[in-house]
Known about the structure:
215 residues; nine-stranded mixed sheet
Amino acid sequence: LPSLVEPGQKPVRPKDSGTLIVLRRQGEGLEVLMGRRARKAVFGGVFVFPGGKVDAADRSVGVASDLAPDVLTRISKDQRRARGFSVAAVRETFEETGLLLAGPADVGSTKHETWMDFAALGYVGHAITPSKRKARFNARFFFAWAEEMSGELGGSGELSDLDFFPLSEALKLPLVDVTEFMLLEVQRRHGENLAPREKYPFFSYRTDSPYIRYS
């Protein structure tokens, strides 16, 4: 897990990041794509969804289709910044798993080697890691269906043991609390076929304990 800041040191500003929860229907249930981070990585040794930090290019490239207007405004008043979270989620998923969620579009001028355009995503929630951690993330969680993606499961090797797990089995894996919460949120919304909601969860911390509110 991330190390703590020294006593008296100011909290680290969290970095914007995007995460994609890739789901696959299996009979009446769901399977979720997860992999294990390397021991020396942030959240090392635990299972995570693919995702990572928002790069500058993620906020400026052209996209095939946009997030729903209410999701854009929920994430940020700055639409470029809001869009960057979802683009980063798709780009990082492609890099880490080999699976691509994309459609035809003009990406415009970008120097990012692996950036690709993307299709519309569903929204799951928002989380910020604790203020006492040296590595902090302002993370937005999206979901997409595996059937809408192309490519072969593999990726860069950043995630080991990469596979689709039934939700019930995924919850038994070594997880950090926010990953467990987002899995439970998907499980709760499964009965609604993950339809859009008026309120979404914000997972944060108060006095080092998880604090969740819906808004």
